[in-house]
Structures are given as structure tokens and as C-alpha cells.
Amino acid sequence: MQMISTAEFVAILVAAAVTYGLRAGGLLLAGHLPQEGRLRRVMDALPGTIMVSLVAPSVAEAGLAGGLGAVLTALVAWKSKNVFLAMLAGMAVVALERNFMA
């Protein structure tokens, strides 16, 4: 078994401390955030905008199949309220295109 160096150990400890600090800071600040107004609406929209920023490059790279998969995923999620089923539907479109249309 190989031992880790002091620098690696310190890097792990720093990463753990930063992660804990971010989580604890979020919990401590949550009570001080506005409950109404423009800033509250911005904060409510953040999860969706972050998801779009993570998914959009993959959808664009996948081309037409990625776009159709994304649209189908959104429609199934909206109609069924079942995120797992929606993801399966979107993945099925991309998988079918990659395996049978290419």
C-alpha cells in the first residue's frame, strides 16, 4: 500500500474544510435571506438556471437527437411529474438515434 504525501493530505483537509464551510455558511445565512421581493425571485430561479447551464452544452453537442431528447424529457417531466421517467424518455431518444440512425 502506498502512503500519501503530506501535501496530498493537507490538500484533502483543505478541500474538506472548504466544503464544510460552504455548507455551514449556507445554513447559517439562510435565515437572513429575503423572503420576498426581487432578490427572492432571483434566488428561486437559480436552480433552474444552473441546471440549464449544465445541460445545454451536452444537448448542443448531441445535435438533433439531444434537442429532441431534451424536449421530450421536459414534456414527460411536466406531464407526469416523474423526473426518473422523464430522464429515461430523454435517454431513450438519444440511445435510439445513436444505435439505429447513425
Order of helices and strands: HHH
Structural category? mainly alpha
CA gyration radius, whole angstroms: 21 Å
Shape: flat
For the record, give the distance between the C-alpha atoms at the N and C termini, rounded to a whole number: 46 Å
Number of helices: 3
In the predicted model, the low-confidence regions spanning at least 5 consecutive residues are none
> How many domains in all?
2
Largest sheet: none
Q: Would you report the number of β strands?
A: 0
Q: What's the rounded overall pLDDT mean?
A: 90
Percentage of residues in strands: under 5%
Please estimate the helix content: over 70%
List the helices and strands and how they pair.
Layout (H helix, E strand, L loop, with lengths): L5 H25 L7 H43 L2 H19 L1
Structural features, described:
The chain has 102 residues and is mostly helical. It has two domains: 1-31; 46-102, no CATH class. The protein contains three helices and no strands. It has helices at residues 6-30, 38-80, 83-101. α2 packs across α3. The longest helix has 43 residues, at 38-80. The relative contact order is 0.06. The model has no long low-confidence stretch (mean pLDDT 90). The chain crosses the membrane at residues 54-76, 83-101. Keywords: Membrane, Transmembrane, Transmembrane helix.
Please provide a brief summary of the model.
With 102 residues, this protein is mostly helical. The chain has three helices and no strands.
